[in-house]
Amino acid sequence: MKPRVLAVAALAALLLAVPTAAQAKGATAATIDGGGPGGLPGGPITLRGDGEPGSGTDLGMLAEGAGVFAVMFEDGGGGLAAAPTDRLGPRYTITWTFADDTAKGRKVRQDVYPYAAGGPVTFMPAGQAVFDTTTAGGWYQGFDGFRTQLIELGLPNRAPLTPSTKTTPAPSPAPASPEPAPATPASPPPAWPRLAAVVAGFLVLAAGAALALRRRHAREATATH
After folding, report:
1. Distance from CA of residue 58 to its chain's centroid?
2. pTM above 0.70, yes or no
3. How far is it, in rounded angstroms, from Cα 111 to Cα 122?
4. Tens digit of pLDDT for each residue in 99-142?
5. What is the DSSP code string of 85-110?
6. How many CB atoms lie under 10 A from the CB of residue 45?
7. Is the alpha carbon torsion for 98, 104, 108, 113 positive or negative?
8. Which of 12, 124, 132, 155 could cysteine-pair with 110, CB 3.0–4.6 Å?
């Protein structure tokens, strides 16, 4: 191959590599704020410096923990379509600054939920301008070490939320069987049958006694004659 052809091929390869290199360049600053009414007690937290992946700086580790490069670009691995938990806790906001051809650089917003159940969760809205493209966006599930880093940077020292437990509702109790109505006390039997029986008994006894007395008198009369 001629030297001129080799030079053109090398230049073309270099030009193709420029966008990739630009996209790999990390943030130059990040500001953390939010968490509810009034924001952070000590005010927003701002980090500046080298935020490139693998730099080992606080800014670079913050970007890695938040999953910035996984959700920012289409080829970054992509984010989750939905939040990995329904227990997110308070929301904070990280505003990233990426250097580009503008004087102030590009601002990219990312929400972070440090105390979410199962580990910190972040969300980056899609369509934000950055470099020569826009953010892909999505949810990202981080590790608990990211929560620890945020606490060391100045966020409240709180434990993560407990996962929600979906319990099967207890079956409704069966309706209680109606209690039997108390038996209506039977009306006492009329008094006249018992009275008649008593009277009849006395009459039988009286008749028997009279008969016995008559027989006795008859025997005595026969004896005297």
Report:
1. 32
2. no
3. 5
4. 877 667 899 999 999 999 999 999 999 999 998 899 999 999 99
5. -S---S-EEEEEEE--SSSS-EEEEE
6. 17
7. positive
8. 124
